[in-house]
Amino acid sequence: MTVRHDLVVVGGGPAGYAAALYGAASGLDVGLVEERSLGGTCLHVGCIPAKELLETASVLRTVRDAAGFGVVTGGVEPTVDLAVSQVRKQKVIDGLVKGLGSLLAGRDVTVYDGTGRLGVDHVVTVDGPDGPVVVAADHVVLATGSTPRTIPGFDIDGSLVVTSDELLSITEVPDRVAVIGGGAIGCEFASMLADYGSAVTLLEAATEILPGCDIDVAKTVRRSFRRRRIDVHSGVPVHGHDPSDAATTVRFGDDSTVEVDLVVVAVGRRPRGDSAGLVGTRVVVDERGFIGVDDRLRTGEPGVYAVGDVVPTPQLAHVGFAEGMFVVKDLLGESPRPIDPTTVPWCIYSHPEVAFAGLTEAAAIEAGHDVVVSSHRFAGNGRAMIIGDVDGLVKVVAARDADGRAGRILGVHMVGPWVTEQLGQAYLAVNWEATVDEVAEFIQPHPTLSELFGETAMALTGRALHG
Ligand code: NAI
User: Fold this and answer.
1) Which of 217, 236, 315, 337 is most enclosed, with most CB atoms within 10 A?
2) Number of domains into which the chain is organized
3) Is the pTM of this model over 0.85?
4) Residue 160 sits in which domain range?
C-alpha cells in the first residue's frame, strides 16, 4: 500500500524540517522521513552543541577575568568540568528536539522513522524498524545533509583523530591539540579548546585563516589567537601523522612537526547526495557528492527539489531554513526570488566572534565595483570598554557613486564582542540595498556595541561623529 502526501521531505535537519513545517503551515499534507533523530547536524553535532560548549568557554573567561571587575572568587583559578558541560549541552539538545517533534505533530506532519530511497514517479521507500513503508507525493524535497570530510593519512579513530562529530562529546580537556583547517569549524574549536586550557596548534592550507572572510577580519582573529597563545600556521599543507602511545606527531609545511594528544580534522563537510537512492530518477549527483540544482533548487527530476548542505550553496543552517521555505513557495507557484548566496548572513562564534553579510572589499573590487571603505575599532566604543572586550572592528564596504561619494552598502564585516548578535541591522542594510546616507539617518541606542556600525556608516557620509 502506498501512502500519499502532497509533499514528502527526505531528511529532518534544518532544511528538511523547515520545508515540512512551512509546507504544513501553507496547508499541504506533508510526510517527513528521518533515519536518525529529528534536528540533523545542526541540533546534534553542529551549531547547537558547538555554541553550547563555546558558551562554557565564555563563562570560563568571564570568571577568569572577574577580579578585574572587583568580583572576588577566592583566588582559585577556575577550571572546566566537561562532564557537567556535556550534560547541560544534552539538555539543551533534548529540549530543542522535543520542541521540534511537538511543532511537527501540531501541524499534522507525518514523521517516518527510517532511511528514505527515492525511485521513479516520486515514490519514496522508507526502510524503517517495522519494515518498508512506501510513500508518494506530488513533490519531493531531498534534504539529506552532509558529514565531516577527512584527508588522506588521517583515519578518524574517535580518540586520537576526531572530527567535529566526536569532538563535541569530549569529557576531558586534551593537553595538546592540532586543529587541521582554519575555517569556521577549525577556528571555533581552536578558540574553545584554548579557553579550556589546551595548547592549540591551528594548521591552515590557504594563505590566511578564515578564507572567504574579509582580510581585515581574518587578520584580527589571527592576531587575537596569537595573543591567546594559539599557534597559528597558514599556507601549510599537512602531510600526515605518526602515532606513538597515546600521542601523535603531525607533519606539516616544509619539515615542521608538532606532537599532540588530539588531532581535530575540520576541512569541510561532504554532501550526502548519494544517500537517498535516486535509482531511475533524473536527479544528478556530482563527483563531490552535491545534488545538482538550478537557482530555484529544482533537480533534474521534475517535481523533485534539493535543499540544505546537500546542494552547493553555503552550508549554513539558516540558509537551509531559507531554502526549505523557498521550495514550498516555488512548488505552490508563488514565484519567490532566488536566494543570493553572496548576501546571506555568516556568524562564527570563536573569540573574537565574526559576523558578516555581503561582499568583502576584495570580492567587491573583483566584481568590478569602485568601492569606498571605512573601518572603526571597538577600542573606542564605550560598551566594549565596559564589558572589557575591545578587540575587533566593523568594516563597511560601499559602492562609490558618480559624484565620488559612498553610496549603496555592498558588505558589512564585523569582528569582536557579540557581533553575531549585532549583524541583524547590517544584514538588512545589505539586503535592502540601503545607502550609507540612509543608514546614517537612524539613531543607534547608546551605549551599545552596535553603535559602531552606525558610526562606520556615518563616517562614509563624510561627516563622522566620533571616528
Ligand atoms: P570550511 O570549508 O569552512 O574550512 C575548511 C578549511 O580547511 C579551509 O580553510 C581549507 O583551506 C582548510 N583545509 C582543507 N584541507 C586542508 C589540509 N589538508 N590542511 C590544512 N587545511 C586544510 O569547512 P569547516 O570549517 O569544516 O566547516 C564546514 C561547513 O560548515 C562550512 O561550510 C562552514 O561554513 C559551516 N559551518 C559554519 C559555522 C558558522 O558559520 N559558525 C560553524 C561550523 C560550520
Assistant:
1) 217
2) 3
3) yes
4) 150-267
